């Protein structure tokens, strides 16, 4: 009975992964299709990548998306780290429950609602104080920081909870001031989580379509918006090439984050083993 259940779960897992990854694999393969018709195979070719890299419209969208993603990831990591520290290290401060609820709200809020609310907010600000005068880089970046900092905060919270406070308390007992403890002990131990959070925020920003479509304006077209606008006019092989490049970029970010987390876990395990040997 146990073997039958195990085989069933293995088959279902395999089918689920295949259902997800086979379309992605087909997209990558057809990005090298020589034919102008997406469903018709015309032999292997890199012509669509060449046309893609020669398109000024695509390069402008890529540059804008990368600029937004870098600024968003940096500020989201900073704010998310401060929020995570407040939730884990500052104890039961007044309004902690409300703050925690507001912090995780972007994780469960539908993107359509988030985008619409930010659009109304920016329009109201523009009418009241004249800023922003137009929607574009600034409004998209602020919108991305709003939801991506929540992901960073959750990552930092998990890391802080797993670290414990033994070293920090020991440093404080030896006379180190709170800021020194934070910069010399807490932040270095948080480095893998900070890098992972930064890469996660970068990926979320680079991949966002729904929220950006609400808060953008004329002349500020991000890469996902460009892809979506082209798909609405019909499938084109250069869209497959563009999507393939995005898949590779996002996969690299995820792989780097996974490697950093694994190395940190291995280092902590070695430190624990050495501590046990010294005690023994």
TrEMBL record:
Subcellular location: Cell membrane
4Fe-4S is among the record's keywords: no
Positions of transmembrane segments: 12-32, 61-86, 98-125, 137-160, 209-229, 241-262
Keywords assigned: Cell membrane, Membrane, Transmembrane, Transmembrane helix, Transport
Protein name listed in UniProt: Putrescine transport system permease protein
Membrane topology: Multi-pass membrane protein
Domain ABC transmembrane type-1: 62-260
Gene Ontology biological-process annotations: transmembrane transport
SUPFAM superfamilies hit by this protein: MetI-like (SSF161098)
Top-rank lineage group of the source organism: Bacteria
Family of the protein in this entry: Belongs to the binding-protein-dependent transport system permease family. CysTW subfamily.
